Amino acid sequence: MPEFQRMSLEALREPLETGRVHISRSAHQAEFPARFQLVAAMNPCPCGHLGNPTKACRCSPDQVTRYQNRLSGPLLDRIDLTVEVPVLSPAILSAAADGETSAAVAARVAAARDRAVRRQGCSNAMLAAGQLDGHLGMSPEGEAMLHRAAARLAWSARSFHRVLRIARTVADLADSDVITALHVSEAIQWRRALPGRND
After folding, report:
1. How far is it, in rounded angstroms, from Cα 169 to Cα 115?
2. Which string of DSSP letters, residue by residue, matches 98-136?
3. Helices (H), 20-68
4. What is the pLDDT of residue 4?
5. pTM of the full structure
6. Residue 180 has pLDDT above 80, yes or no
């Protein structure tokens, strides 16, 4: 992702947030639907070996910072899930057990989506911030954990609402009407910052 020009990346902010894109040219303006799912990848540094236990990173701290700063805080704020994929040795990879089949995962996701649509008439991702409270069903322990995390990590309002939606989805995947502290904890883990960044 950081290999794209920053201006191009910043242009993703509006459609990620609103599902629409506005184009203005001299005296003309147009608006188009642009709801999409963004799946992106990046290395932790220019050489790709930051944090690699078997190969040393050859980048300076300044190079790492410049590379990661190609993605602005406001753009990262609009990305719901961030997954760090660590380097694994061949021995660990070959010994890893087989995971779930794609069909099993797809069935579980479809059931969770159906649950959300029956409850509120749309998917959790489509819930406006003002609609969240009416559909959360959060336990007191989950709410306390969420507020502690929001204060400690200095989340923006956008991040706070995105974590709420993720927690609601985690609970739906677990077939739970109530968002517990466990669901909130998992949702928080999906919102990790990039290594070396605090935003």
Report:
1. 10
2. P---HHHHHHHHHHHHHHHHHHHSS-GGG--GGGSHHHH
3. 61-68
4. 92
5. 0.83
6. yes
